[in-house]
Amino acid sequence: MCSDKVVLQLENINKVFEAGTPRANQVLHEVNEQLVQGELVAMMGPSGSGKSTLLNIMGLLDTPSSGELFIKGQATTQLDDAGRTALRSQHLGFVFQFHHLIGAFNVLDNVLMPLMLRLGKPSKEQVEYAAYLLSRVGLADLQQRSAKALSGGQQQRVAIARALVTKPALLLADEPTGNLDTKTADEVFQLFEQFNAETGCATLIVTHDARLSARCERVIHLLDGRVV
Is the pTM here over 0.70, yes or no? Predict the structure, then answer.
């Protein structure tokens, strides 16, 4: 795969909590992995295998104890907080198990929130794109509704639109269907498949659902902090 297609590269990633103390706990061991443009990848592993820690490092929410993480070819471990925030804002989208919508805002403003934080006021074209995304997730008629008035499945759809509104190169999803019934989980996962195919963004989904992971191109298995 040509290097310009590699969106994320992990090289010898280790993570040790409370290093240098008797309570030192190494959670990740020499993790090497890459995600390329257009890939739809699942990450699986038992509780305590290091999935959340690795996802936080991939999302520039935490730094490794050693090793290097590249986003779009740029080394990240020596960046300061402002540099990581800028890179995260430019290239990454996040969907969490708990959608973290702002109940006091309507649906459209929740989708626009990443752009508001970055730009202050989104452009007309960006507002139109946010509305388009809401139509794609089946919520075109609910743009002005309060986010807290939505069902769990609808709130997760809003969270997906919000993650995509910045047109990220990498979409990270942490148990995005974990709180949903089977039918709604299938519908939400189908949205990931559609947007991955349409936009070409590399997509990584952490899931415990083997049925959903089987629909991905490949699966990263973590066990005791190691890729197996």
Answer: yes
